Protein 1
Amino acid sequence: MKILLHLLFPLAMIGALCAKDRKPNFVFLLVDDLGWGDFGCYGAEFYETPQIDKLASEGMQFSNGYAACTVCSPSRAAILSGSYPARLHLTDWITGHKHPFAKLRVPDWKIRIDHQRVLMPEALKEGGYRTAFFGKWHLMPIGQPDFDQHYPTDHGFDINVGGREWGQPKGRGKYFSPFDMPGLDDGKAGDFLTDKLTDAALDFLDQTKRDQPFLLYFSYYTLHGPLMAPPELVAKYKEKAKTFENTKNELLDPRRAGMVEKLDDSVGRIMAKLDELGIADNTVVILTGDNGGDSPKTTGGLRDYKGLSHEGGVREPFIVKWPGRIAPKSSCDEMVIGTDFYPTLLEMAGLPARPDEHADGVSILPLLTGATKELERDALFWHYPHYHRTKPYGAIRRGDMKLIEFFEGGNLELYDLKTDPGEKNNLAKQHPEKAQALLKELKAWRKSVDAQMPSENPNHDPSRGGKNKQGKKMGK
C-alpha cells in the first residue's frame, strides 16, 4: 500500500499542475435590465436568488461595478470590444429614439460594430477557444443593406442561439413558446424562454471537448419587459406580496419576481452542469448586467434607473468566480466597468493583450487574485449624446466624486458617492473648483476618444422639443 501511495502521489501532483496550466473555460452571464437591488447578495429581500447568492459566496463580489452605458446596445458593444461607446461611436440602443424638435440634434452615430475590430470572442477563438452565443444580441443595423452581416456568428461566435436584432422577445409568444429565434426550437406550448435558452446552453456544455477551452456567452433576454413568468411563479409571489414587509421599497411585481427566480434557476442549472462534467474547477464564471433595472424600485436605493444619468442606471451587480484563483467570499470596492472584461479574459487565458482593441479596458485579474486592491486607473467615463428618459449628458467618476454635465444648458451635478450614494446632494455650487476640474478632465477625455457631440438643432420647436417623433413626452 505504501509503495502504491508513493507511486500515485507524484502522478496526482503532475495532474494538478497540468490542470493549473490549462486554459480556463469561460461562462459569461449577462442579464438584461438588471437592477443593483435585484439579488439577495446585493440586498434584495422579496426576490429569491439562492443560486446566484451561492455563486457570489464562491468568488468575488464587487460593490462598484458599472455598465458602460445606461442602455443596452452600447453597453454590450463595450463588453465585446473593450472600448467605451464614445470611442466606438455606438452610443444608443439600436435604433434609438427620434426627437426631431429637441433643442439638440443627435450626432450621426453607428448602429453596428465595425468588422475591422477584433472582438473578445474573436481574440479567444484565435487563441484556440470554441465560442457560443445564447440569447439577446441587439447589435445589428436594422434596415441597412449589411443587416445580415452582423449576427453573433459574424463577430467571432461559432454558434448563435437566439441572437438577432431584437432588444426584447418579440416572437409570437414573447417569453413563452413559440419564440421565433434563430437556432432555438419552439418547444411545446407553455415553455419559457429562459428555460429553453438554458437547455441549449447545457447541450453546448455536454458537447464540449475536454481538450478545447470554450467561451459560453449567455446574454439573457430577461429581465427586459414584457414582464412575464410561469403562472405558478406569478401565483407564488402574489401570495408572498400579501404579507411581505417592504422595508426597502422593492418592486413587488410577481411577474418580475418570477423572472428573477427563473434566472436564478438557470444559473444553478449551469453551475450544476459544470460540476457534473468535472470542469467547474477550470471554469471562470462571470455574472453582471447591461444597465439598470427598468424601475426606480429595482436599484437598491440608488437614484434613478435605466436610461437615466444617475447611479441606478449604470451601477450593476458584478460577480466573478474562479476556483483556486479567487478566494471564496471575497469582495472588492474598486471601480470596474464592462470594458474591463476583454483584457481580463485574455490575461486569464494566458493570451497576449490587445491594447489597440480593448483600448479602454483594464485587466482586473490582480484585483481578483488579491495581488492588489487598487488599479492604476483613477476615473471612469460615460457619454450619452441622446434623448431618452434623460437629456444628453456626459459623466465622470474620479475616486468618490462624480460629475454629470448636461449638454443642453451646461448644467452640472457633483456628488460625493462615499457619503451620498443616493446622489441627493448636488455639490456643484458648493465646490465649483472641484466641478470645473472634473469638467475639464471630462472634456479632455471626450477629445481623446473622438466622442461625437450633439449640435444645435435648426428645427428646434420649444413647444414640441420635449416630445419624440410619436408625440410622446420625454422623461428627465
Protein 2
Amino acid sequence: MKVRGGRALYGASVGILMLEARFPRIPGDMGNATTWPFPVHYKVVRDASPERVVRQGAEGLLDAFIDAARALVTDGVDGITTNCGFLSLFQDELAAAVPVPVVTSSLMQVGMVDRLLGPGRRAGILTISGSTLTPLHLARAHVPEGTPVGSTEGGREFTRAILSNETEMDIELARQDNVEAALALQAAHPDLGAIVLECTNMGPYAADIAAATGLPVHSIIGFVSWFQSGLCPPRFPCRDNCVRF
C-alpha cells in the first residue's frame, strides 16, 4: 500500500495561534498541551503580548497573525484557533487568508448557547478585561446585542498577573477572582442561564464557576474540542487522524 505525504506534521489537526507570553499555564489552560485530549500544534506570534492584544486592540498585528496561520497550514493542521478571545477582531481576515476553518474566539459560542436556553434565559460573558472588550469585539463574534458582561478586572490576581505578563501567579487567588466575578454577573442578571468564558486562561476555573453559580459554563476548551471533532483531512481516513466525541 502506498501512502501520500505532503505535510510537515501528522496527527495534530488543530493549530493554535499563541500570544507571546510568560505567565504560568496550568492544566486546563489552553496553552498547556496536557489540557487537550488530542494533539495540538502551537505557533507563537512574536510581539503579540497580552497587553498589546487585550488592552491595545491588537493594533498592527494582523499581518503577523495571518503569516502564522499560513505557516500552521503549511505544517499540516486542518483547523486553526487562537489563545485569546479578543482576537475575534481578526476572525474574518484570518478565515479569508487560509484554506482551513478558523475559530478565533470563545465569544463565538454565545449566540449558540442562547439558543440552547429556555425562554427568558440568556448567556452572559465573563471576560478578563471588561474595560477593553468593545462592541466591535462582540460584533465580530456575532454576540447578540445586550448580552451581559462580567469581568475579573476588579479582582486581586487573575487579570493583573496575566495582562502584566507576570512569571508567577497565585492560582487560588485567580480562582477566587473568577468565581467572585461570575457570582457578581449572576447577581446582576437574574435571567442568566449560562456563562461563556471569553478568556482562554479561565479554563482551569470553569468547574469552580459552575459549582458556585449552578449554571452551565462554556469555555474555549469545550468549543475547540467540538471544533476538532469535525476536522477530518480528506487525504486520510478519520480513524487515523481525528478524535471523535
